[in-house]
Amino acid sequence: MKTSVLRKAQHQDLPLLMAIEETVFPGDRISSTSFQRFIKKNEGLVVAEQNGLILGYVLTLYRARTSIARLYSLAVAPATQGKGLGKRLMQQAEQDAWEKGCIALRLEVRSDNQKAQSLYQSLGYTERGRSPGYYEDGQEAIRLEKLLTLDSVQTTVERIIRFERGIL
Ligand SMILES: CC(C)(COP(=O)(O)OP(=O)(O)OC[C@H]1O[C@@H](n2cnc3c(N)ncnc32)[C@H](O)[C@@H]1OP(=O)(O)O)[C@@H](O)C(=O)NCCC(=O)NCCS
To answer: Cα separation of 67 and 25, whole Å?
Structure first.
């Protein structure tokens, strides 16, 4: 999965973002209005594009007066899953948060979502606690956190080298 480009979301991405959202999440979806708001804000919403198609996205929220960013959503189109794009989007989100001066990234994941939990664990996220009944259908959330350090995020130079070697 090296040919997709990661970039900020733009207004024309909205239909394909919505299509991914509706395909991968049975509930707790981000609405079209919310996506439009995040696109307008021009911050935190990164898409993976390949040949005009949106293959996935990651959404990170930043708030004033806190150096902790919140990973709000992550999704990869079903046909593209398992090829490293989820990890790449997460690493991009971490890099962006680091460059914005954040020292940690927090997120919630469904306790029945093993795939996403494995991804976060492989990236060094640790459990902070659990929130029973957090999701629309009553499922529990696991709250995770990763402290961002210079060692834990890839520098821009490292990413360019990896890209050129085709190991993204
Ligand atoms: C979770 C999701 C974003 C992962 O994206 P992906 O592109 O499929 O994941 P990657 O190929 O980058 O895999 C990264 C890691 O995830 C884990 N993983 C991926 N597929 C897995 C599977 N079928 N079973 C268990 N773990 C899996 C592994 O730890 C993997 O690391 P490894 O390849 O070094 O072993 C994607 O499956 C998805 O969109 N799922 C539906 C939406 C969702 O659950 N979003 C997260 C909400 S918190």
So the answer is: 29
**CA 119 – ligand 1 centroid, Å:** 5
Residue 30 Cβ < 6 Å to ligand 1? no
Can you tell me which atom of ligand 1 is nearest the CA of 80? 7
Nearest CA to ligand 1 atom 18: 115
Domain span including residue 108: 5-164
Rounded average pLDDT per 10-residue block, the chain, 168 residues: 87 97 96 98 96 97 96 98 97 96 97 98 97 97 94 65 62
Question: What radius of gyration, in Å, describes the C-alpha atoms of the chain?
Answer: 15
In this structure, what CATH number is given to the domain that contains residue 17?
3.40.630.30
Residue type (1 letter), 156: T
pLDDT value, residue 160: 64
